[in-house]
Known about the structure:
Protein name: Hydroxymethylpyrimidine/phosphomethylpyrimidine kinase
CATH architecture: 3-Layer(aba) Sandwich
Family: Belongs to the ThiD family.
CATH superfamily: Ribokinase
Largest sheet: 9 strands, mixed
Radius of gyration: 18 Å
Distance between the termini: 37 Å
Low-confidence stretches: 7-12
InterPro entries: HMP/HMP-P_kinase_dom (IPR004399), PM/HMP-P_kinase-1 (IPR013749), Ribokinase-like (IPR029056)
Keywords: ATP-binding, Kinase, Nucleotide-binding, Thiamine biosynthesis, Transferase
Number of domains: 1
Number of strands: 9
Oligomer: single chain
Organism: Cohnella phaseoli
Shape: globular
CATH class: Alpha Beta
Amino acid sequence: MREGxxxxxxxxxxxxxxxxxxxxxxxxGGAGIQADLKTFQELGVYGMSVVTAVTAQxxxxxxxxxxVSPDMVGxxxxxxxxxxxxxxxxxxxxxxxxxxxxxxxxxxxxxVKRLVVDPVGAASDGSRLMDGGAFExxxxxxxxxxxxxxxxxxxxxxxxxxHSGDIRTMTDMERLAKRLLALGSRxxxxxxxxxxxxxxxxxxxxxxxxxxxxxFAGPRYPTPHTHGTGCTTASAIAALLAKGALPEEACRxxxxxxxxxxxxxxxxxxxxxxxxxxxxxxxxxxxx
Length: 288
């Protein structure tokens, strides 16, 4: 039986891969559970969601956040995992320590194996999405459970207590990624989107080969419309893991998925626009 309580019905009736997002809702549709569910669908995975917070959010930023109670987060997790189960889980916004603790208990109880942790401390406009206690609880409880952790440079520096100004070269990035492994996850995908240059270069390291690093390079598209990039990256990795990809393969393919989505990003409202999550499949159909 897979993670959760998948019944014998699955043998004959329902064989699609399943992925669950545990994250906040973005009313503007570009990030959070909305971006995650779009990504799951585009990658051929059945998506489910546990809502941790409801935001009033648009292209200009986050205007209001109402947290869902930790008990309700736990109830949603129990409802989904005890009946349907999942092949992978992606976590995003976990506003307070109690939300992290409720998630960790459910993941342990239902033996979730393919956990992707996006350590999203703040929204792209700078709005704080996790308080300090929640961030530390995520570091302590969820990272040791994680198959892959997907920080950007500021998040990685916060996890390690490093000043981002001290990370100046790709060699520094690789050292940072290796240090992140010591926090307990089996793989680290350190995103390089905050760097300048013609290419966007991410770093992948694995506890299976701790002395080895991989660089994933791709084009950097000249667009300001990148809302939801971090959520989309993590959920794409989760979807690909749910389909049976190995972590390095999942991270490489997720990067291609996100690059395509950024290449077709568009203006939305008066501020930062959104990715186009359908671009990856559309480009593949065109190439055929």
